[in-house]
What we know:
The chain is an alpha/beta fold. The protein is 38% helix and 14% strand.
Amino acid sequence: MTSAVATGGERPVVLLLRRTDDRLAAELRSRFRVLNFYESGAPLLSFLAAAAAAAGPDPPRAALVVGGGTIQVNAAFLDAVPSLACVVTTGAGVDHIDLVECARRGVAVAGARRVFSTDVADHAVGLLVDVLRRLSASDRYVRRGLWASRGDYLLGSKLSGKHVGIIGLGSIGSLIAKRLQAFGCTISYNSRRPKDCASYNYFPDVTDLAAASDVLIVACALNDETRHIVDGGVLEALGKDGVIVNIARGRNVDEAELIRVLKEGRIAGAGLDVFEKEPDVPAELLSMDNVVLTAHEAVFTTESNSDLVDLMIANLEAFFSGDPLLTPVLPK
Length: 332
């Protein structure tokens, strides 16, 4: 990786491809010359080409990119700004970055790694409790004045004692497992291979995991192998009393099949923080009282956002100083 220290004592150029809060914007502008995609009003590739052409003797060598797939860092992206040598993403997942192409071109990549893990694990458990105990649905029932006219709301189901299957036992999946053990749940998991450090029951097949579980939690990365890893067969295996929670990526679950099994009563409910075509959520899901929906926000708390700003700035400063990135991401 070529050192990216700016010439002539000028602040180095950073391409900003993420909407920012006041603190991140201030931290970036105090250290770097920021070219903001969202302020430009231009199409992505036009913005990149214009930024590359306008930078003069100090072309943009680093980009801060939003996670979640809104912007794809692929060959076309890299072609538009050939001076780029570092991509820092604010996402825990990196399915929006072509890591192989970046490595081929010598472009370093840094991710958020475990900044969000605790918050996502908490959110997963919150979604599960909400679905099982019908908290959001009961809240709506009370607010509509139906308690007085119709009596008590439908009973929910207890969390303690449930058999929970987790797809993906990485940092987030492991924290989910630890939390649910405290509720008295029995944990099983699926991953590419058994984890030496895990005492939970391992299932090499996701359908078998679903069949053995009351709850299925999706916590894996998105890649070619895990796209629609939860398909109709897996959902059918989960059964009519089963609940699915997805805090990974929308495309890990076949959304059309999920809607079908929910409509047909073949599973009991779902807690979803992610969707296949965000921010569009299928109308069918919006109308279901046994489905709890959040806006891809499992990662976001006041605390995690502050930690993320610190990490992003530290990675950029390390790059421009010629030091190793704090949270490098390499192709597998």
